[in-house]
Predict the structure.
Amino acid sequence: MATTADIRNGLCIEFNNELYTITEFQHVKPGKGPAFVRTKLKNLKTGKVIDNTFSAGHKIIVQRVERRPYQYLYKDDMGYTFMHSETFEQIHIEESLIDAPELYKEGQEVEIIYHADTETPLSCELPPFIVLEVTYTEPGVRGDTSSASSLKPATVETGATINVPLFINTGEKIKIDTRTKSYSERVKD
């Protein structure tokens, strides 16, 4: 069994009978009193992030998770269908396990996180950045194209609406940060 000395970013642990991954941690040794570890834990099922403090030497239960490469195929009434990139096995996943489902397009490479002991999918994640084409946006105002602080809504090829700078036009490709669902940069062909 592991202790707080084994805590690191990305470690998956069982806490209050739920699976959490550690997103941030800080070992603290105050001048008075015992040492402790401050952590931010992200629930793998709900995505909710909580703060928790463990006393130094506290026992933690480490869980083994695996990231497996998949390709998004389509969405139907059974959920989202993915194909394993190496075995070509297809699986269906419900929308609640999918991160930013409005940004998925057919053929998109994703990672599905599995609980290794039970072989159950925990979540499905896009890469940090994806490139999508703008299918519709209002034209920008002439003379105001250099201002990056002004944003306008743009619809991308998946149907999602992203706020983009005024100089972005219909037909251009943009890079989107999937963690914040926001515009990152324009992509040149």
